[in-house]
Amino acid sequence: MGALYPFVRGDHPEADIIPKFETDMHSNELSLKREHQGRAKHAATTSIPKMTTLNNVDCKFQFETLNEKDIAILKLGKLILGEKHQRNRKKSEIIILEGTRLIRDALKAGAEAECMCFCQPDVLNHLEEVQELLNKVKLYRVSPSTMKRFSDTVTPGGLLGVFRKPEQGEVVSPPKSLLPISLICDNLKDPGNAGTLLRTAAAVGCEFIFATEGCVNLWERKVLRSAMGAHFNIPIFTRVSWPQIGNYLGSETQILLANNYTALDIYMDTDQITQVLCAIQLFRISGEMPDQLNREKPLPTSRELTTGGDHGEDGMQRSDSENCYDVPLPVYNYSDTPLDLSEKGKLALVIGSEAAGLSPQAKQFASEHNGVYVTIPMNETTNSLNSAIAGSIILYELRKKLLAQT
């Protein structure tokens, strides 16, 4: 009997070993279809025999081989493919992990697997470290064409797992030590950047991760792959409002806004900040520069300006959050940022979208929580850093300062 699968012992389980096997399987499927056409009355009961070995390679796990027409694979496909759609993902109670390493790390962390799919049994031998855990999971062998349909990668790794999605703020495997640092993803759109930031936050020892409404779904497959298991080591709160974030963090948390501003040695107290903001608002209404105003006449308050009809260029009423675009918060180099390192002091770093930057709501939140802008010095030929890189640099600087205090 010829080899059914071009597998060589020692090959990496995620190598591109599917195409030839898919050709063989396709030929087998065509033969089955011809047989079904000749025996229509028995078509409903025809199935591929169950197998436990392949190419004389022992498999230590019990699994079931599913045919394309099996009801079980139709239900499985509905479950997995339904998670891929954005509108279903927000309500989904499952997450999809791909690749032996990510699945092995998830099982070791204590994540609950509902079932797994694979193309050939040899890939399961790379999970011997978690064999006891895997014995409790339903294992299904599917065709390469089915795996490609289930996967969202160009070259599927040959192993896909369906896991229970942790609840809001649930930590599957809590770390032994944490630092009073939280990460806030403000309308972050790129899955790769989000996953890298999650991975860095877990490595730093952050307490919480928050994702505002409009941010990329932190539980989608690309984010999960990029984070490399960090999701199971840190509390994650998704689709939260800024008031909700404030309730979690408390009023004593210092907010740090990552930005590409230039740090200046200019300091203002809150009264001076209010005066500058009011002058800007008054200029929008009257068209007069602050220097042209009668200095003996006090500037109107922010409330007076707002109720008096502070409008934007489009004639629409400007909200308080929009006015916070103009709040001149202090700007510091990341290594010189003054931090509240008291016993009750906590820190929260806000990372915005690379395309849109920080939202006005984030700036308003920072203005209410002793907020400052944090910047990273760059060569004059560069105007910005990748958000994940910038966030990682600042997070590790915060970690260094907090550990130096203890």
TrEMBL record:
Pfam families assigned to the protein according to its UniProt record, in alphabetical order: MRM3-like_sub_bind, SpoU_methylase
Skewed-composition ranges (Basic and acidic residues): 310-321
Cellular component annotations (GO), alphabetically ordered: cytoplasm
Keywords: Methyltransferase, Transferase
Region span, Disordered: 292-323
Record InterPro entries: Alpha/beta_knot_MTases, MRM3-like_sub_bind, Ribosomal_eL30-like_sf, rRNA_Methyltransferase, SpoU_MeTrfase, SpoU_subst-bd, tRNA_m1G_MTases_N
Keyword set includes Transferase: yes
Gene3D superfamilies on file: 3.30.1330.30, 3.40.1280.10
GO biological process per UniProt: methylation; RNA processing
Family of the protein in this entry: Belongs to the class IV-like SAM-binding methyltransferase superfamily. RNA methyltransferase TrmH family.
Name under which the protein is recorded: RNA methyltransferase-like protein 1
